[in-house]
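Chain A, query sequence.
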Amino acid sequence: MGNFTLGRYIPLDSPIHRMDPRAKIMAMLFVLIAIFFPAGWIGYGIIFVAVSIVILLGKLSFTYILKSMKPMMFMMFFLLIMNCLVLKTGEPLFTIYSFTVYSDAVFQTLYIVVRLLLMIMITTCLTATTKPLDMTLGIEDLLKPFTKIGVPAHEIAMLISIALRFIPDLIDETTRIIKAQESRGVDLKEGKMKERIMAILSLIVPLFVSAFQRAEDLANAMEARGYAPGEERTRYKVLKMEMRDWILLFCAFLLLVGMIVLSRFK
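Chain A, predicted structure.
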């Protein structure tokens, strides 16, 4: 559980931390869209280099970024098994007990894994270098044009920021409950399937109780401070785009255009 890093803000002094949250959010969207274009290994290599530069500018460690991949290893292994069972195209690589594994199954799985890796890297970089409050302000400003058609920009931004803010807290709470259950003799790793299911249920119930208690405390705190959804609110902090923010947006858009061109001439 401690390997889950998405949503954790790291207070550092770096050029990426000082950038406008709107520019970082839009740049992340451009890169995420670029990842889904089939630009081949060359395109994925270019995206990886670009994201790595952002991570270095943000003074983040690659170890911290890659920690989020560990909880997804089972899903990647499952994708590999499914692709090996379904895809029967390409060159045969090896045979196990009359079952042949083809190259397309392995390469398709590698494509998915690389895409997931890149998406986790860029999203973790965003949440690690952007304060939850700045994230709320940035999302609200980006959604503000849609208020003309009835989209509640402020409420959506608040929900997203609260979700990102409480993901690390829920992970930490889960870790504490697991340790408390293990100290009482509950074994979550061994035993029969029925016993393991019952052990997981003993983990889920207190986790839900804790989550609902946190939600109630947050609602009471917001109500005590006079928060009213839908009301016009003033801001203490006003966001302002600077030259470095426009440069980041331009580079991200240029990366997206490059992936589109590579996918066309692949």
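The mean pLDDT is 80. The first strand starts at residue 92 and ends at 96.
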